[in-house]
Design brief:
alpha+beta, Ubiquitin Conjugating Enzyme, 4-stranded antiparallel β-sheet, 4 strands, globular, acyltransferase, ATP-binding, ATP binding, Ubiquitin-conjugating enzyme E2 2, nucleotide-binding
Length: 222
């Protein structure tokens, strides 16, 4: 059922402004993901940070693989773009690292929680056990030089913005949230009634209804 779960998550995340996603070769187990920082106070604001996510066949019981296409100068990003982040580690406690089960991957996690954690990590680096030691040292000893490295990465990331794609801004996202808040109760009710079921579920219900109606008619004819 992993493919159905992933497709449902993909459709939901496609509506968000802070990420731009697509399937690679129409494969639901491999996504192209771009993270877009909408916090204007962040040094990463305005960047288009592209990454690739690959999902195991037993998702969500095993975490996905996340890797930036361009490596970032960041204490928790390896030179090949991989991340050192707890949520992508295998489920269960790790006595060696001291990570608790609640910090690591679990089947209740979703793609959205991974992406939000990565966005949070960008501005809130963990320097105690860095993947990039030099970046960690620079962040602690020379924050201004580190910020300049971040700004360079941000400008480089803009090279990956697809032609014709309109980069969202903080203001655009805020307006979208306002629009969602103004939905009427009847709109929400309609969505709950008709938008929560898949086409397959609705089709199955129609078949059952047709069968019941046919049986009642036969009884009346008898």
């Amino acid at each position: 059922m992993a493919d159905k779960i992933l497709m449902r998550e993909f459709k939901e995340l496609s509506k968000e402004t802070w990420t731009h996603i697509s399937l690679i070769n129409d494969n639901v187990f491999e996504w192209s993901v771009a993270l877009i920082v909408l916090n204007p106070d962040s040094a990463y604001y305005g960047g288009y940070f592209k990454a690739t996510m690959k999902f195991p066949s037993n998702y969500p019981y095993t975490p996905p693989d996340f890797r930036f296409n361009r490596s970032l100068w960041h204490p928790n990003v390896y030179s090949d773009g991989r991340l050192c982040i707890s949520i992508l580690h295998q489920p269960g406690e790790d006595m060696m690292s001291g990570e608790l089960a609640g910090e690591r991957w679990s089947p209740v996690q979703r793609v959205e929680s991974v992406l939000i954690s990565v966005l949070s990590l960008l501005d809130d680096a963990e320097v105690s056990s860095p993947a990039n030691v030099d970046a960690g040292v620079m962040l602690r000893k020379d924050p201004e030089a580190y910020k300049q490295k971040v700004l360079q990465d941000k400008e480089t990331s803009k090279q990956d913005i697809p032609a014709g794609f309109e980069m969202p801004t903080h203001e655009m996202a805020f307006k979208k949230e306002e629009k969602v808040d103004t939905f009427s109760w009847s709109d929400s009710e309609a969505e709950d009634d008709f938008g929560s079921e898949s086409d397959e579920e609705m089709f199955d219900e129609d078949e059952e209804t047709d069968g019941e109606e046919g049986g009642e008619k036969d009884e009346e004819d008898d």
